[in-house]
Q: What sequence folds into this?
């Protein structure tokens, strides 16, 4: 078979290529210009036209042209770094309790609060203007808000039960002398039972009585064993209580921050959902740009 | 005959020489005391105190039944230095029965009494000591021109013993003359000084005796501050915590070296724009911090000059 090339097809292909290249070039030129003017709103529109159209222009079903958007995929770290300046400045006002650390170019850890041992709360996704919260930490906070409705705190039950255990352990330590006296008494009774020879029909009862004494003795010895380890256990428990109390304190500061800023956890969640639109709208009120994109 | 006569004369001469020596010593003694009490010249004052503290007055031929003790010249010196700067806050009491000199500060006069206790080693010097508790607040050496505060004793006396019954203003008033004295010694005589926890400069670094610190101790303060007006903050740029105790007063507790986790020495610092607040002030003024400090004192004890106050 000879290589036969259909001339008409070829023309079409060239046309397609030219159109595509023109589209790519104009996309890149627009992006370059937006970057040189620090027109962040425009940059966001170019990076995700579909979302921008739906969230800001309210025009549905405008699909992203992946042929152009993918062109800058390998620049996401740099773009994120570039766009972070204004975004973090904005977030500084709207979420005053969050702090950010760029642990590698374009990647930001979010810290909740400036207090001692504040929590790392997830990441800031700059290109998508959203928080990617750490799910464990987020759910703790959400539960803390839920518990607060019934005036409870996240770790209080656990703290209470550990403290009760510590009280019990302390009692075991304090009652060592009392146990010693009880043991002596029981041993004496046991001796007496052993030496007493009763009537044959009494032997069942006697056995039973002996067993009761032996059981009581071994219970006391178990308590002795517990008491021997109690000092260490109490210390361990105290460390646990401290860690749990610290978490309670952190959660209380987090709750307070959210209430002070947003009024409620629900309002906080609404704000998170609307962050993209709310942020990009700030550019429009700043300077009246036309929405021809 | 002549020989015997000669011998008697010689003996008399020798006797009179000895008495003269004793009298001369006594004359010197009263002259130095006058100097200590009257001179307005700072160097002469220091010389008088130094010489009196070292003077062996008792002589075989001339006895002085009434003398101050060596350590009392330290007290007189301190009182005169303050007086020359119009500070009358150290009140001296002479006990007629024992001829010993003690000092008092007005705001805590009913609870405390101070005297100097001589250092027994060859290093010389004396400790300013509270007589009831035997707490040695500072060491003073006139020859070597140095003064060193003892942080453990300051905490024992003022923070443990007195803070419960006396308000912080009275405690601060009591230590003020000691701080002033130390400033004068430095500025007038060029003493080498260590204010310890009384140092109000922002550059003052109060290192922990233990060096290392387990962060649990900071967790405890963090938990205790919940529900109060204080919030324990995470320090920026350093491993440590900051407590804003008043709008203009910050207490920091941090590791000296921010990179290495090992062999880190921890220290307190207190920052305020007027540089008027010391770690001592923070301890006596804020019950929350005092309670936390005393509960964890083994870990948080602030170090003093180890050459003078070991351990």
A:
């Amino acid at each position: 078979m000879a290589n036969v090339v259909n001339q008409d097809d070829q023309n079409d292909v060239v046309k397609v290529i030219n159109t595509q290249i023109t589209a790519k070039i104009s996309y890149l030129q627009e992006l370059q210009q937006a970057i040189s003017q620090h027109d962040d709103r425009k940059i966001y529109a170019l990076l995700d036209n579909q979302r921008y159209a739906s969230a800001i222009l309210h025009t549905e079903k405008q699909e992203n042209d992946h042929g152009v958007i993918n062109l800058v995929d390998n620049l996401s770290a740099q773009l994120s770094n570039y766009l972070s300046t204004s975004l973090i400045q904005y977030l500084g006002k709207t979420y005053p309790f969050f702090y950010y650390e760029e642990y590698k170019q374009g990647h930001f850890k979010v810290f909740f609060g400036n207090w001692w041992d504040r929590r790392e709360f997830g990441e800031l996704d700059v290109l998508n203007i959203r928080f990617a919260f750490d799910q464990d930490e987020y759910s703790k906070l959400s539960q803390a808000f839920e518990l607060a409705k019934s005036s409870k705190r996240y770790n209080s039950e656990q703290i209470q039960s550990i403290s009760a255990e510590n009280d019990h352990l302390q009692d075991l330590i304090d009652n060592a002398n009392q146990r010693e006296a009880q043991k002596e008494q029981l041993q004496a009774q046991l001796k007496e039972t052993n030496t007493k020879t009763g009537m044959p029909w009494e032997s069942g009862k006697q056995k039973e009585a002996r067993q009761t004494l032996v059981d009581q003795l071994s219970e006391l010895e178990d308590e002795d064993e517990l008491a021997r380890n109690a000092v260490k256990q109490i210390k361990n428990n105290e460390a646990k209580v401290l860690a749990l109390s610290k978490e309670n304190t952190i959660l209380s500061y987090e709750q307070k921050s959210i209430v002070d800023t947003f009024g409620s956890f629900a309002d906080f969640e609404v704000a998170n959902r609307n962050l993209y639109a709310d942020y990009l709208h700030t550019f429009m009120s700043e300077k009246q740009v036309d929405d021809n994109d | 005959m002549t020989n015997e006569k000669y011998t008697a004369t010689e003996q008399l001469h020798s006797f009179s020489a000895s008495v003269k020596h004793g009298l001369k010593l006594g004359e010197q003694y009263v002259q130095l005391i006058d100097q200590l009490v009257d001179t307005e010249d700072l160097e002469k004052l220091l010389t008088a105190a130094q010489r009196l503290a070292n003077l062996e007055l008792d002589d075989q031929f001339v006895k002085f039944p009434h003398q101050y003790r060596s350590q009392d010249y330290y007290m007189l010196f301190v009182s005169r230095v303050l007086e020359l700067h119009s500070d009358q806050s150290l009140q001296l009491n002479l006990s007629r029965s024992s001829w010993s000199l003690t000092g008092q500060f007005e705001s805590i006069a009913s609870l405390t009494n101070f005297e100097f206790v001589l250092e027994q080693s060859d290093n010389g010097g004396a400790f300013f000591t509270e007589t009831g508790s035997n707490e040695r607040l500072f060491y003073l050496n006139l020859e070597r021109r140095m003064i060193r505060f003892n942080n453990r004793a300051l905490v024992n006396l003022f923070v443990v013993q007195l803070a419960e019954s006396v308000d912080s203003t009275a405690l601060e008033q009591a230590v003020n003359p000691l701080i002033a004295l130390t400033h004068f010694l430095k500025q007038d005589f060029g003493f080498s000084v260590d204010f310890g926890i009384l140092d109000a400069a922002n550059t003052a670094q109060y290192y922990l005796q233990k060096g290392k610190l387990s962060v649990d101790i900071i967790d405890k303060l963090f938990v205790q501050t919940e529900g109060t007006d204080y919030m324990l903050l995470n320090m920026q740029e350093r491993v440590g915590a900051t407590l804003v105790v008043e709008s203009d007063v910050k207490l920091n507790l941090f590791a000296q070296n921010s990179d290495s986790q090992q062999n880190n020495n921890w220290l307190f610092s207190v920052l305020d724009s007027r540089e008027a607040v010391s770690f001592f002030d923070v301890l006596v003024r804020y019950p929350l911090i005092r309670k936390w400090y005393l509960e964890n004192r083994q870990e948080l004890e602030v170090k003093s000059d180890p050459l003078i106050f070991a351990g």
User: Anything to note?
Assistant: Chain B has a mean pLDDT of 92. The longest strand of chain B covers residues 240-246. The radius of gyration of chain B is 25 Å. Residues 2-66 of chain B form one domain.
